[in-house]
Amino acid sequence: MQTESYIQSCTDMLDDRMFAALQDPARVAILRRMFALGRADISSIAEGFPQDRSVISRHIRILREAGIVSCENVGRQTLCDVDGPAILRRLEAMTEQMRAVVAACCPEE
């Protein structure tokens, strides 16, 4: 891998959708609530937040698109949960990718 490839690989990793989704304090607060609630409908997740339910729903959509949350329609409700295994797989893949980059571009002395 050439130096330019290392740089691109590292910046791609750090620009990952998962990290971008977690940069918003409201989404982190929503995620914290979802960890506490477990599988829950959007109305339950939105309880206690100053934002409208539609805003919370939009934040959850961003978390879902980033692979952090999974949602399922059950009747008229949408039930959402933190997708821990998917997060773990993504972080493990990033760790392995970073090991390869570090070994090639900046090994320990």
TrEMBL record:
> Pfam families per the record?
HTH_5
Alphabetical list of CDD domains matching this protein? HTH_ARSR
The UniProt entry, under Gene3D superfamilies, shows:
Winged helix-like DNA-binding domain superfamily/Winged helix DNA-binding domain (1.10.10.10)
Q: Membrane-spanning residues where?
A: none
Where does the record place the HTH arsR-type domain? 7-102
Give the record's keywords alphabetically: DNA-binding, Transcription, Transcription regulation
Q: Which GO terms describe its molecular function?
A: DNA binding; DNA-binding transcription factor activity
PANTHER family to which the protein is assigned, alphabetical: TRANSCRIPTIONAL REGULATOR, ARSR FAMILY, TRANSCRIPTIONAL REPRESSOR SDPR
Name of the molecule in the record: DNA-binding transcriptional regulator, ArsR family
The major lineage groups are: Bacteria, Pseudomonadati, Pseudomonadota, Alphaproteobacteria, Rhodobacterales
